[in-house]
Amino acid sequence: MSPTPENRSRISRLLHALGLHELGYVGKWVGVSVVIGFAGGLAAVGFDWLTHTIKGHALSRAGVVGEGLPSMPESWWWILIIPAAGGLLVGLLLHGFAPEASGHGTEALVRAFHELDGKVRRRVVALKAIASALTIGSGGSAGQEGPVAQIGGGVGSMLSDALKLPERDRRIFLLSGAAAGVGALFTAPLGGALFAPEVLYRKPEFEGEAIIPCIVSSIVAYTTFVACTGKSRAISIDSETLSGLSFGDPRELLVYAVLALLCTAVGWLYIRCFQKTHATFERLKVPAAVKPMIGGLMLGGLALGIASLTGENGVLYGGYELMRASIAGSLSLQVLAILIVAKILATSFSIASGGSGGVFAPSLAIGALLGGMVGQGADQLFPGLDLNPAAFALVGMGGFFAGVAKTPIASIIMVCEMTGSYELLAPLMFVSVIHLLLSQKWSLYRAQVQGAVDSPAHAGDFVVDVLERMHVEEVIDPDREPVLVSANSTMRRALDIVSTSPGTYFPVVDEDENMIGIFSLSDIRRIFREVGVQDLVIVRDFMVDKVATVQPQDTLNDALSVLNEYSIHEVPIVDRNDPRKVISMLSRNNVGAAYHKRLRELKLGKE
Fold this sequence. Notes:
2 domains, Clc chloride channel, two-stranded antiparallel ribbon, 5 strands, mainly alpha, 3-stranded mixed β-sheet, CBS-domain
């Protein structure tokens, strides 16, 4: 499908206003991505402001200023009431107007790409922002990544609809908008640009066509966000810590290998806990709108329960303070271990119950805690290695999320951009790859498919791509001779031949076995009930003399086009040098069987 003249004029007017009307096809889509990036950046600014505004007015009445409880507040019951009230508001809002805005938004984004033609309802953009801000602002253990990805994706989808772009472009700009939101809010333009095309698939694949639009929109959105907010880093690290980050001793790889194994084990626990919590709340026989309230109540109880053990470091909000504390090395091994388990439970209670928020920030926090625990433990066991726990906390952040989300490249780049340090790129890649390889059977995002070949969005592409690489001669059965019928045979004789033949189309030949026509079972059926004509009518009388044919050198895609063009089920295969000589017959079933066989071979070759 291509844009109509009316659509082209809309796009042309937009690009002319941007000064990009002379840059050709690539320039046109770059121009649209610029608009999406600017709009996505503003959306990220608004969402960030809304979240912090609610956060500043919710739990502050209970004396909570951070993620934990340094001391038990006198009005401790507010720790239970406020997350529960936030959950109730979210439940009423979402289940009344847009149920797809619940949960972590990246899941909805992935599903929209694969299954919904890239469509996002307009109301979802505003409702997702409000619901996620309420969840996070009232203390929910959720991040802004998933929501802002869905919000930005909605912006891209809406602009595509406004320009009446085809389905393929809408999917691309859905990802472009998501990249804009993530790149802006997490001050990671390259990581955000790579995250959206990578998160679609469980295997290490990208949505190639979307990368350039995503890069453009992410850069524009990042610039817009920084200009409006003044933020340049999502996680600030002091210069002394940054100067101490390094990797050069090969012996450290053994400790990083242990970290990768623990990331795999904790990642599995995290995903299982999240999914089991979701399944439990799904079975809960209460109104759907009430479920996030119960999750908020459980979160508040958990926060109060661990307060005496973890103090000012707790499980409320996204977890950025936990990341900073893990990098600074200010948490003991016991507190790190408690917080890992508690953060997994808190995130499950907040989001899997039906709340609205992202899993990116909580996952980074869990990874940072895990990395800090491994770094501190290894430093105590092997003081001669002179290990830096801060380095392990940073590597744990990227390595953990890379495996649970199946986004190794984006995770590595985003952590480096968010922290402003590329010193640990090698161990980050090492841990991420090991975790990814060991965790192929599970993922945080159930809507992910194995690869592009498994996506409904690419079903037509792969049919054509596979069939273009196969030829008619590959499906010719040498043991099956074509059933040829003489033009002078009577209808009775033709019926005798047809009754013992498996096909439905029969080439008609002359005395020299040169094809002069063809007939089908339908042609016979038209005169079958005529009384007393079976010995009078000959095949020449009811055959069709204009015959569609294919040759052995034709591609199966060309052959399928012939079958579709003439609305037939079989077509004769003729000799290239003598188009009147029939070699065999090709049916739709032959083409379909050949396609599925080759598809299985391709899948097995990739596994």
